[in-house]
Amino acid sequence: MGRTLRNRKRIGKRVAHSASSDELIDLFKWLKMKVRKLRPTMFLDTGRGLMTKRPIYPGDVIIAIPKPFLITMDTVLKSEVGFLLKRSHLKLNLQQAMTIFLITEKEKQEESVWWRYIKVLPETFDTLAFWKSSDLCLLSKNVYKKTFAALNDLQTFYDEIILFLSSSKEVMITFNEFRWAWYCINSRSIYYDCDSSPYITDTNKNIALAPFLDLLNHSTTAEVEAAFNKNNNCFEIKTYNSFRKYDQVFISYGAHSNTHLLMEYGFILPDNPHDVYELNYDEIVKVAQNLNLQYIDKKKRIIEENEINRKSWKLIFKDDTISITNQKAVKNMSQIILQQELLEIRSVFVKFPSKDKSRLTPHQNLALDLLKIEENILQQSIKLLQ
């Protein structure tokens, strides 16, 4: 990996529960995997992960899961949940359907074909959806708004499931059960190409669960290729990194910021090259209006009437150089906005119940670490503008 322990260390763990060695051995036997290369190990810096028992080289396939052990759309449609889907006039997306499937299979315990996999899943998560309200208030304004929006979406997905199940007296699920299953899928699903189904919406339909793959931890330096191999009927992960004997083997969950990692997986990374600090559109407009920038109201109207994707604004840097007058105006506005954001971030620090990290809860420590990372991004950005 070529990274020091300090750089590779994760802040927080993706799950708050680790399966026992016996449960994992049972899972391997069920998967009929000899796992010659990899062994589950508890690491000081990341918690549970996979250690290689021999050198791994670029181009090596590190894991191959046979298709019968993947939970896919077909798996759900062939189950009792599929029966409900086929007789209902309401449609769910695949993650919603898979959520019901996971809960019903968990209730069966040993009677479920999938029990050996389900019993190694975490009982709870460190993702923001599982935090107490008092801890969520320790997040920066931007992250809190994102979390609030995500929680509203989560409630909507749950309400749709309850409406779907209202005609069935056999299956009822609580919000806590739903939240658990939703994040099992959210944090563990792989991309798996599925054909369309008349019983499932096309939204987010290309997902599957692959037992054992979730033991692999994330690194920003990992380079992998993950795909279904039709020749051997397995979902494979191929690495383009080198690992020495006894190294932890990493994969990449994607080029994600720490906010995304915390919301979806429950951890953050120091020195994350994909980290960003997102500025609020309304705050940008407010500062521009206060500075009486030319044509700002007209520009605002054009943006909103045409629903211009704000993520594409950075494309201006690929165009011709802007005028010196506009450069100065942009620099001045940027300095004001960044200073305001920095003051906003620093105002949150006083909300923590203690300055001693050892006296904070794990979630409070995660919130504090993320705030410090955001503060550093703003400080470095302000320096670049000076």
UniProtKB/TrEMBL annotation:
Residues 31-254 form the SET domain. Transmembrane segments: none annotated. GO terms for molecular function: protein-lysine N-methyltransferase activity. The lineage of its organism: Eukaryota, Metazoa, Spiralia, Lophotrochozoa, Mollusca. InterPro entries: SET_dom, SET_dom_sf, SETD3_SETD6_MTase, SETD4_SET. Gene3D superfamilies: set domain protein methyltransferase, domain 1 (3.90.1410.10). CDD domains: SET_SETD4. This is SET domain-containing protein. Pfam families: SET (PF00856).
